[in-house]
Amino acid sequence: MTRSLPLLKGTLDLLILKALSCAPTHGYGLANWLERHSDGDLVAEDSALYQALHRMEGRGLVTAEWGVTENNRKARYYSLTPGGRHHLESEAETWHRYAESVSAILAVQIGNA
Amino acid sequence: MAGYKRFFWLGIGRAQDLRRGLEQEIETHVALRTDDLVAQGMSPDAACEEALRRFGDLKAARRELYASTRRREDRLKLRVLADDLARDLRLALRQVGRAPGFSAVAIAIYAVAIGLTTSMFTVVDHVLLRPLPFPEPEQLVALESVTESGDAFYLVSMANWVDWHTRNTTLATSAVYRSDRMTVGIGDEVLRAEVATVVGGFFETIRPQMDTGRPFSEQESEQEARVVVLSHAFAQSLFPGEPPLGTRLSVDGEERTVIGVAARGAPRSHECPTFELTPAALAGC
Asked: What CATH number does domain A11-112 carry, 3.40.50.720, 1.10.10.10, 3.40.50.10490, 3.90.190.10?
């Protein structure tokens, strides 16, 4: 737990959209998915996850329906709307360019400058 | 289908249900994480504690999530309403297109009904609801004669009125008027106008607002003073822009002096003569 990274502002939405683009799931499923795919590096407080989900539901990026989990608990299953999918594509694109630029700058060797 | 589900959810989705849904969502989350932690070998108590810790500030989260949920549901409710309205409109237009004749008749009936109700209300409003344009309108009453068979009869004989007037113990003042079309002469001009002849304290009774000049008193009425008070409209049409006070005019051949002009809208319904008022003596008593 000590090696986990705090999330950069604004990245949580992107991560959630990505997770939901794989399969609709409930909030805990999302938290699990994020931990698994970041090897436990990226950890958000669960409450932040729900706030992001509800916010994006309000913006029409995700939609939710009640369903039942494998061990028979009532849970809200979130899935991506077409608008959410579009948003994910454009945001992912922006993120890649941003990350590349930052990496490129950080990779500059002082001696070569 | 999703729309319908959502609609039903909204149907029972009052504040309490929103809160319950939110609690359910949080509860499921904490329970699932606890189960997983237990499966990883934690004791149930420790697992539950850890699950709650990972959730974060539960109280603040509840508050914020509830607020955002309610905002979203409100928006959704509006959208559902708008959709319903649009659907009803489309349906209505299709029906009109399918049966234009029937629709035309229905619309015409509505139009007539609305027109009738509106004019009815206008009458009721003016006659019953709006107060008379005089001070203390609730104190004013109209007196009528009653025949031997008990029917009301709006004409009042002068002798009866004098009896009412002198023996009256309930009314502060009373007056009687009679209005007629009479010949009014101003200089060379002669015209027919509605003129009310009044007896008793007419102006003391209704106390109308005056544009200019003064009303005549009960005393002047008794003395058959040769004076006249004009209505606002009459004064405007005959003496536009100039104050008619002191002007002499003849009413049915009798010379009278204008001493006042009542304010616009002061006496206006049939019960309150709209036109010229001249005092008369208690003739015939």
From this structure: 1.10.10.10
Ramachandran angles phi, psi of B229, nearest 5°: -110, 130
Q: Of all helices (H) and strands (E), which one includes residue B183? A: strand B175-186
Nearest CA in chain B to A28: B29
CA terminus-to-terminus distance, chain B: 90
The torsion angles phi and psi of B180, rounded to 5 degrees, stand at: -150, 160
pTM of the model: 0.48
- Nearest CB among B21, B32, B75 relative to A73 is that of B32
When CB atoms are compared, the residue of A46, A54, A57 closest to B54 is A46
pLDDT for B164-222, tens place per residue? 888 989 988 888 888 788 888 888 888 888 888 888 888 888 888 888 888 888 888 77
Using CA coordinates, name the residue in chain A closest to B65. Answer: A51
Q: What is the ipTM of this complex?
A: 0.84
Mean per-residue pLDDT, A2-8? 68
Closest CA to A28 of A12, A47, A41, A54: A47
